[in-house]
Structure formats: C-alpha cells, structure tokens
C-alpha cells in the first residue's frame, strides 16, 4: 500500500526505465505471493479458466479503468501466474 501511495504522489522520482520494467516487477511480485501462500494459491487456482479483471476506476493500466477500456495488466499477470501454477 505504501509503495502504491508513493507511486501516485510522484514525490519520489521514478526510475528512468520504469515503464519498461514495471510489468516484470509486478509479475515477480505476484508469482512470489501466490507461490509462498498456499491459501492464496488455492483461491487463484479455483478461478479455473475465468478471465480475471482488476476492476477499478482509479487505474486504467493495472486495471480496467472502471469502464472495461483499461489495459488490465494485473488481471493478465494473475492469469499468467495461474497458468504457470497449473503446469
């Protein structure tokens, strides 16, 4: 939560290459979260092959922007990790 707050305030300078690496950073964080917590892994796997959408009006990059027009990168990353766990 603190990292998200800092990212939104822009009080801390963002790395020059952040746009090129942020998806990989999120992928690694999500992968770690769902491989280290069996209860969360079970919840993710129980979603089957459902399309996962981060529904939020506040973010059109990680989420759907509230209107479905966002990039939903977090939802796509969750589905990728789910696929990895199913192998």
Q: How would you summarize this macromolecular structure in one to three sentences?
A:
The chain is mainly alpha-helical and 87 residues long. The protein has four helices and no strands.
Task: Tell me what you see in this structure.
The protein has 87 residues and is an all-alpha fold. It has a single domain, classed as YbiA-like (Tetracycline Repressor, domain 2). Helix content is 55%, strand content 0%. The chain has four helices and no strands. It has helices spanning 2-9, 18-36, 38-45, 73-85. Helix 2 (18-36) packs across helix 3 and helix 2 (18-36) packs across helix 4 (73-85). The longest helix has 19 residues, at 18-36. It is globular. The model has no long low-confidence stretch (mean pLDDT 93).
List the helices and strands and how they pair.
Layout: H1 2-9, H2 18-36, H3 38-45, H4 73-85
Helix pairs in contact: 2-3, 2-4
Total number of β-strand segments?
A: 0
Distance between the termini: 31 Å
How many H/I helical runs?
A: 4
CATH architecture: Orthogonal Bundle
Oligomer: single chain
How does the major sheet shape up? none
What are the defining features of this structure?
Tetracycline Repressor, domain 2, 87 residues, globular
């Amino acid at each position: 939560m603190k990292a998200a707050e800092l990212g939104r305030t822009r009080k801390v300078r963002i790395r020059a290459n952040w746009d090129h690496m942020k998806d990989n950073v999120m992928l690694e964080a999500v992968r770690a979260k769902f491989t280290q917590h069996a209860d969360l892994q079970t919840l993710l796997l129980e979603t089957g092959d459902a399309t996962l959408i981060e529904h939020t009006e506040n973010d059109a990059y990680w989420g759907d922007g509230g209107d479905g027009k966002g990039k939903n990168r977090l939802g796509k990353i969750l589905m990728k990790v789910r696929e990895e766990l199913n192998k």
